[in-house]
Amino acid sequence: MNGRPRETKFAFSAAFAFLGVSTLGFLLLSKADEVAVTGFPRAAVYAAAGASAWACLAFAVGLRLRHEGWLRSARRGIVVAWTLMLFTTICLLIALLSDWYHIEYVWRTSTPDQPVHYKLSALWGGMSGSMLFWNAILTSCAALMVWRSRREEDRLTDYALGVMSVVMLFYAALSAGIVPGISNPFQLLNADVLARIEADLAAGASTRGLGMNPLLQTPLMMIHPPNLYGGFVICTAPFAYAVGSMLQGSGSTLWLARSRRWTIAAWLFLTLGNLLGGAWAYNELGWGGYWGWDPVENAALLPWLMITAFLHSVMIQERRNMLKIWNIALISLTFLLVLFGTMLVRCGLLTSVHAFGESSELLAYFGSFLALSTIAVVWLIARRWRQLRSVNRFDSLLSKEAAFLFNNWIFVISAAVVLAGTIFPIISEAYYTYVRGIPDRKIAVSEPYYNAFIVPLGLILLALTGIGPMISWKKATGSNLRRNFLWPTAAGLVAALACVAPFAMIGSSSPDGFPLLKTIYSLLCVFASVFVLGTVALEYWKGVRIRLRRGSPNLFSALFQLTNQNRRRYGGYIVHIGVALFYIGALGSNGFQLSERVKLAPGETYQIAGYQLKYAGEPFQKRGQNVVFHGVPIEVSKNGSGPIAELEPSRGQYDASETATYEASTLRRLSGDLYIALGGINEEGKADMQVYYNPLAWVVLWAVPVVMIIGGAVCLAERIKYRPAKGAEE
Amino acid sequence: MKRIAFAAALTAVMVVGAAEESGQLTPIQKTALKKASQSVLCSCGCPPTILNDCICDEARAFRDVMTEQAREGMTGEQIAAAYIEKYGEQYRPAPAKKGFDLLLWILPAVLFAAATAFLCIFLMSQKEREEETAAKQPQDEYRERIEKELKERRTV
Q1: A203 and A295 housed in the same domain
Q2: Mean pLDDT confidence for B43-48
Q3: Phi, psi at residue A175, to the nearest 5°?
Q4: Which of A68, A377, B107, B135 has the most CB atoms around its CB within 10 Å?
Q5: Quick one: pLDDT band at residue A511, thresholds 50, 70, 90?
Q6: How far is B10 from chain A (nearest CA, A)?
Q7: B residues 93-152 near A, CB within 8 Å?
Q8: Which of A417, A447, A593, A676 to mutate: most B Cβ within 10 Å?
Q9: Is A180 a residue whose pLDDT tops 50?
């Protein structure tokens, strides 16, 4: 028995004690001098970067020499870096809540009248604060890895922690403000600017601080960025285990077991981050949709596509010891795409609502790390090529392995399509500027391109979502296919046939018509969604029936027992239900959306999707805590009955911002959303609005995230047992 | 028959006239406007947003101009072309399928084909290996059987 558990416990106890004492000390000292006290957290970020650097060095030496003393020191280095990053984050939250405007970050992202919850979310509302938050999550992941491996001498986790410490050092240097283009979150405001602000205040200026971007002052921004950042950052852990395994050179599949929960957590956070981002866009941007193929949205989608492919292909390695190189490539690509996405957002490479700003130094820094990481991964794969070659082989095209391989194939092509669309404007601009000598010829890549490729690929993927879980390993027989797919296929066909007439009717009544391809895609989407739901229902029914025969008291108890017994499998099925629901919701809200520009004078009415809208009354002004809403009252009635709701679309004018936000007003019903965004009131006194009817939008925005959380949580609760795969050299 | 056709034409003229007089567009003009505003991007500086979906002040002003163009009888394509000519290529929602920009449209298809070919080659190589193994397998089985029978004879 070595001293690891005791030492680790001591390190963590000391870390918590330090956090408590230092935070208390910081608060007490701030009463005396709130300017001078910011020197502590400012220095703490440098110290955290130093601790990360130490951990890198100590892991390198310790693993090379197989010296336990160095390894213990390295692990302590990780705990120290984590403690310091947490301390700095807490200090920044205190600074934001206490309105310390001498700190540049606080001045940029907060105002005294900003609601408290938005002062808290200002932590990730700006460049350096969000980077600090990123570091806090990353170091927390590393600390958790240290804690979880305290009981045994876990060499693989040591290697993985070595990789983590390199990534920690990379990001900690950014937070410390060492790299130009991003400042230390505790950098003080320039004396000249401070003097100008004081002068403005003395002259009667109403507020202090620029305040957070109004678009970010929304409840969804409290949860969307933490989820997305969480997903991005947690992807580092499975990548670290994959690289650690190659560095260790054991060729074992242990890294899959070790990284399993991290992978699911990263996937769940990325999924929620993307879905909540869609909900934010829907509520805040006023264009009636939730996905606009914005470059930064794409940057968040790319790692999701890769990690989802990895989650599937990893099952083949666990079960059949195949696709070892492929799995390492997939998780490495996930990490590299996270880096790429971060580079896009932080360096202002592309125009986006989410971008932070432009910096060529930052671009060089990120680009270098991205290139080095890529070279390192390729070199390691080449070095371990023989060891990573598959032992087993595919037996048939009609097998689970082949279905998962096709699934991976679609995911990777989809990612390539999205990546090409995202970076093509840069490539095109460079070509026209440097090759053709035509400067400033820019292009945009938007919906038509993505829809042309992603829709058919997505439909194939949906069909595979139903096929993959049900088809047999090795080789499916005719009876297996009949048993598992007959009823779901029949259900899908019936549903698709039932939709032919309604779709044709909607198409004929629509002013733009309903193109043939769109009709075919819509019918295929209905078929595949119902097919997936059918396969899951069938699988549940089989299990439940057996449980009931074996004495389960009722259906719910049988369902619970079934799910509890194999959480990974049934959690996956729940996620597949979420996927099918997503497609149904997306079909409704995108395929059948009605959108009209409506100009109404007071008292005038307009009809859309069976609703009658009446501009009832006069324009109003409502004062919020730091915002004034200028809107119009719209009375909604349906089928000639009395008013069923009053919507108040408005534009928000924030005290500390010149640009106005679009505050759409939505009537949510089970069949769809009536969504009204106010553009303005014209010279004739008419309210100029864009009115949308989005069928089943709630399914995508609310139902799918809930289902995904349930499915993801069940998968996370899986009992992970490490079992070497057949044919593995352990 | 002539009377019916005349009445229909008259009704159509009256409907168009009434719609124009009241400032509203005819269904054809409305379709042209929608087609045009759905095939260009707004230039307000926000991320690429289809003009039809954008409600910013600039987008509304552009759409007012387009409404006038539709009323003048321009088709959706003509209105969109005029917009692109005036404001630039970057306001096309997707690059034109010509010149260097054609590459973007070809690339996914090439990728798809290459990935499919790779997948087929990979699966075929697996199949060959499988056949090789299968060819060897019976011999091993026969050898085992012969050895077993010989062993039995010897013991007898």
Answers
A1: no
A2: 68
A3: -65, -30
A4: A377
A5: low
A6: 23
A7: 93-95, 100-101, 103-105, 107-108, 111-112, 115-116, 119, 123, 126-127, 129-130
A8: A447
A9: yes
Whole-number Å distance between alpha carbons of A379 and A247: 11
- The residue among A162 and A348 whose pLDDT is bigger is A162
Angstrom distance (rounded) from CA A203 to CA A195: 12
Residue type, A709: I
Q: Which of A358, A352, A288, A373 is nearest to A695 (CA)?
A: A288
- Contacting residues of B for A689, CB less than 8 Å apart: 55
Q: Report the alpha-carbon distance of residue B131 to residue A396 in Å, rounded.
A: 12
3-class SS at A117? helix
Count of domains forming chain A: 3
A79 shares a domain with A35: yes
Contact A447 B50 (CB under 8 A): yes
Q: What residues make up the domain containing A257?
A: 214-474
Tell me the two tokens of residue A436.
């053709």
Write out the DSSP string of A414-465: HHHHHHHHHHHHHHHHHIIIIIS--TT------HHHHHHHHHHHHHHHHHHH
* Residue A352 to residue B93, Cβ atoms within 8 A: no
Neighbours of A355 (CB within 10 A): 18
Task: Tell me how crowded residue A92 is: count the other CB atoms within 10 A of its CB.
Answer: 26
Highest mean pLDDT among A198-212, A463-477, A524-538, B120-134: A524-538
Strands A627-631 and A620-623: antiparallel
**Sheet (strand A660-663) strand order:** A620-623, A627-631, A650-654, A660-663
Identify the burial level of A106 via C-beta atoms within 10 angstroms of its C-beta, where 0-12 means exposed, 13-18 middle and 19 or more buried.
Answer: buried
Tell me the sheet residues that pair with A615: A634
pTM of the shown model = 0.89
| Contact of A311 with A266, CB cutoff 8 Å | no
Residues B72 and B114 in one domain: no
Q: Is A311 exposed, middle or buried (0-12, 13-18, 19+ CB in 10 A)?
A: buried
Considering the domain architecture, whether residues B80 and B104 belong to the same structural domain is answered as no
Q: What is the DSSP letter of A660?
A: E
Pair of tokens at residue A409: 């194939």
Same domain, A41 and A75: yes
DSSP secondary structure string for all residues of A577-595:
HHHHHHHHHHIIIIIT-EE
Nearest residue to A78 via CA among A139, A119, A12: A139
Nearest CA in chain A to B60: A679
B84 and B120 fall within a common domain:
no
Q: What's the structural domain count of chain B?
A: 2
In this structure, what token pair is assigned to residue B145? 């059987």
Residues A274 and A414 placed together within one structural domain of the fold: yes
Residue A183, in any domain of the structure? yes
- Closest Cα in chain B to A689: B55
Q: Which residues contact A291 (CB under 8 A, 6 or more apart)?
A: A278, A281, A297
Question: Residue A699: CB partners within 8 Å, gap ≥ 6?
Answer: A581, A582, A584, A585, A588, A589
List CB contacts (< 8 A) between B92 and chain A.
443-444
E strands in chain B: none
Same domain, A166 and A123: yes
CA pair distance B100, B94, nearest whole angstrom: 13
Q: How many residues comprise chain B?
A: 156
Rounded to whole angstroms, how far apart are CA atoms A384 and A684? 73
Residue keyed to tokens 């008292």 = A603
* Mean pLDDT along residues A326-351: 88
Q: Give ipTM to 2 decimals.
A: 0.79
Question: Is residue B54 domain-shared with residue B110, that is, in the same domain?
Answer: no
- What residue in B sits closest to A295 (Cα-Cα)? B47
SS3 A686: coil
Which amino acid is residue A687, in one-letter code?
A
- Is residue A589 one of the residues assigned to a domain? no
Q: Assess whether A641 and A686 both reside in one domain.
A: yes
